């Protein structure tokens, strides 16, 4: 029987820490947050009753440092620790240390974490329990030759995976023998950096499959039930993007079969608390065990929305030693729920993580948004780029889709680039709407491209900057705002210059009775009914009425419309132009990160597309390739060095024909 507790330390950050703290406070627990020095003013740090700063920004010196977290628990007199997801949530040694310190670990036993956290041992256990598994290799021999033989036996394509951890890290698909050595090396390096273990397993790739997972729950009294399935097929590089419950591909008979297999998997390790058993569902409706996540999942809200249960509350009750208080027959799925993950990343730049100050965060009204950011905060390069989850529920799947689309349109994140536009496109795509998404749907589609502003957008931007600039002057000198653009001769036309898709766009703005008239490269665009209130506004641009959110920072305008997010700079104010001193042969860091490998030497000849280095940022490894063929003339990049965004890594003197 677990000991009773009244105070809870949440050993995490971001949206999941906020999520856990809210439920814990609602249930009367005293809550304690931990924060790195970079997070001391983050929302989760301010939401808890107490916050302990545990170390510098790097996770190894803060959120992954078990000793510092246990010290914080002792200092704050916390009696239990909730690990959230990621970080130490599936670290069996940490769970043991928590229990050895006389605290309650809100999660399964260390033994269950240890077994299910090792994909190789877990798969062997599932085979013994009769749970369907994918053919492959999960042995202890880790030399390259053994994996080569295993791949030949399984037949290409195969999937190389980290034996520890998850979240798409340390995972590579291999389609032919020539690709296997590099895939093993990259996956092993990524796994070591992310999970502290480079052990790998290999499985036959089940292509064109769906990713369907089952939420299970157990208590200390031997009760284990499932709470239905979630469909997480829309993934990018094995990282989930959109999840829903229930799955559009699962009928009641299949649901019972999946649920039975998931419960048997949990029973095999005497599971306690919240867990998720993940399966691949093939087109022939056969399903195969992937892994078990011994923690709360990122996508747990969709299960909450269709069952009416608070999974964090259930976790805390079970951790107190209480019976689950729920039978399988009492679980009812009502309606449909879909979650979209909002990432600080640039889809048009290969989904590179984005960082920087958050000038405006405005979650959509109505519905549910779980977030870990706020206006005035900052997204740093030290942590995962997931910043919020937008969650919609409807009586039917079609209704949930409509609501999610509306919520995404009304969500505004200004500052770092986000994947909001990409999510809107996914939700509106026919493949998703018809319930036919597969795990390869996103990766097999054409890469996203940046949406360039059209004439009306430039007109709206110029009008907003014109109006806000005058209002600042009017407030300073106490002038009536209706004098904007007035002169004794003729209306003043304020000039604006923006960078367009094919060169500079010249705009001239003059006031009109209900807004502005904007000349965009010689064509007049009326911007009427222009209403600005705080960081929000509406306007009639041409024939369209547009809702928008905006922030101005000097010459920069950050603009969010229902269909796009933009940053536009008025070059009249800056009088600056881009200067690419390094030319086409300059290879720069596309983000802040750690150089983990350098594959070339100064003076070496390289070919276009050749691998030059790898950069680790936000727990992912990014390969840096040569943009041109030529000779390396400068090599500032060094293994183990931290580099900033835009910093020169390799300088190549291009061949003359390039």
From TrEMBL:
Protein name: Biotin carboxylase N-terminal domain-containing protein
Keywords: ATP-binding, Biotin, Ligase, Nucleotide-binding
Signal peptide: none
UniProt keyword Lipid metabolism present: no
Domain Biotin carboxylation positions: 4-447
Xref: InterPro entries: ATP-grasp (IPR011761), BC-like_N (IPR005481), Biotin_BS (IPR001882), Biotin_carboxylase_complex (IPR050856), Biotin_carboxylation_dom (IPR011764), Biotin_COase_C (IPR005482), Biotin_lipoyl (IPR000089), CPAse_ATP-bd (IPR005479)
Domain Lipoyl-binding, residue spans: 572-653
Organism classification: Bacteria, Pseudomonadati, Pseudomonadota, Alphaproteobacteria, Parvularculales
Source organism (scientific name): Parvularcula lutaonensis
All copies of domain ATP-grasp, residue ranges: 123-320
PROSITE patterns, alphabetized: ATP_GRASP, BC, BIOTIN, BIOTINYL_LIPOYL, CPSASE_1, CPSASE_2
Cofactor: biotin
């Amino acid at each position: 029987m677990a000991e009773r507790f009244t105070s809870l330390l949440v050993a995490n950050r971001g949206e999941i820490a906020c999520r856990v703290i809210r439920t814990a406070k609602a249930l009367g627990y005293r809550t304690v947050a931990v924060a790195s020095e970079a997070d001391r003013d983050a929302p989760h740090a301010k939401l808890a009753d107490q916050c302990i700063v545990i170390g510098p920004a790097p996770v190894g010196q803060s959120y992954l440092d078990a000793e510092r977290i246990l010290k914080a628990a002792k200092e704050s007199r916390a009696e239990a620790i909730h690990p959230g997801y990621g970080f130490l949530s599936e670290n069996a040694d940490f769970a043991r240390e928590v229990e050895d310190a006389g605290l309650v670990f809100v999660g399964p036993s260390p033994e269950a974490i240890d077994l299910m956290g090792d994909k190789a041992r877990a798969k062997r256990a599932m085979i013994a329990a009769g749970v369907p598994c994918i053919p492959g290799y999960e042995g202890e021999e880790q030399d390259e030759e053994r994996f080569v033989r295993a791949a030949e036996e399984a037949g290409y394509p195969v999937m190389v995976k980290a034996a520890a951890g998850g979240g798409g890290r340390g995972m590579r698909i291999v389609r032919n023998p020539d690709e296997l050595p590099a895939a093993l090396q990259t996956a092993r390096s990524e796994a070591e950096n992310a999970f502290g273990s480079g052990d790998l397993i290999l499985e036959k790739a089940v292509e064109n499959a769906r990713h369907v997972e089952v939420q299970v729950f157990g208590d200390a009294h031997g009760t284990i039930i499932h709470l239905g399935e979630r469909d997480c097929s829309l993934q990018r590089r094995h990282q989930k993007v959109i999840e829903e419950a229930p799955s559009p591909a699962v009928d009641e008979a299949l649901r019972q079969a999946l649920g039975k297999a998931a419960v048997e998997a949990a029973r095999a390790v005497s599971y306690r608390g919240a867990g998720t058993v993940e399966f691949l569902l093939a087109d022939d409706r056969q399903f195969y065990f992937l892994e078990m996540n011994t923690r709360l999942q990122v996508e747990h809200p969709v299960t909450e929305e269709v069952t009416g249960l608070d999974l964090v509350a259930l976790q805390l009750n079970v951790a107190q030693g209480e019976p689950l208080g729920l039978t399988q027959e009492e679980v009812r799925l009502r309606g449909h729920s879909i979650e979209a993950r909002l990432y600080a990343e640039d889809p048009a730049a290969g989904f590179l993580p984005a960082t920087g100050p958050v000038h405006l965060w405005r979650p959509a009204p109505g519905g549910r948004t779980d977030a870990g950011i706020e206006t005035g905060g900052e997204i740093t390069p030290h942590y995962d780029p997931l910043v919020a989850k937008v969650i919609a529920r409807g009586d039917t799947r079609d209704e949930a889709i409509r609501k999610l689309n509306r919520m995404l349109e009304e969500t505004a994140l200004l500052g770092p680039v986000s994947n909001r536009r990409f999510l809107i496109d996914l939700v509106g795509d026919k493949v998703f709407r018809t319930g036919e998404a597969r795990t390869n749907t996103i990766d097999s589609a054409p890469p996203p491209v940046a949406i360039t502003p059209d004439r009306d957008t430039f007109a709206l931007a110029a009008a907003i900057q014109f109006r806000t600039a005058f209002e600042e002057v009017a407030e300073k000198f106490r002038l009536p705002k209706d004098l904007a653009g007035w002169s004794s001769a003729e209306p003043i036309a304020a000039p604006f210059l923006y960078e367009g898709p094919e060169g500079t766009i010249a705009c001239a703005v003059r006031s009109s009775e209900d807004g502005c008239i904007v000349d965009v490269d010689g064509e007049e665009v009326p911007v009427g009914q222009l209403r600005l209130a705080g960081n929000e506004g509406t306007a009639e641009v041409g024939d369209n009425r547009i809702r928008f959110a905006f922030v101005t920072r000097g010459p920069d305008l950050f603009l969010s419309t229902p269909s796009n997010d933009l940053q536009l700079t008025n070059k009249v104010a800056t009088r600056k132009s881009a200067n690419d001193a390094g030319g086409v042969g300059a290879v720069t860091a596309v983000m802040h990160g750690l150089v983990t490998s350098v594959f070339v030497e100064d003076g070496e000849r390289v070919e276009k597309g050749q691998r030059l280095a790898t950069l680790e940022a936000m727990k992912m490894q990014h390969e840096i390739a040569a943009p041109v063929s030529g000779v390396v003339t400068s090599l500032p990049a060094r293994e183990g060095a931290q580099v900033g965004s835009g910093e020169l890594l390799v300088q190549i003197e291009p061949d003359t024909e390039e």
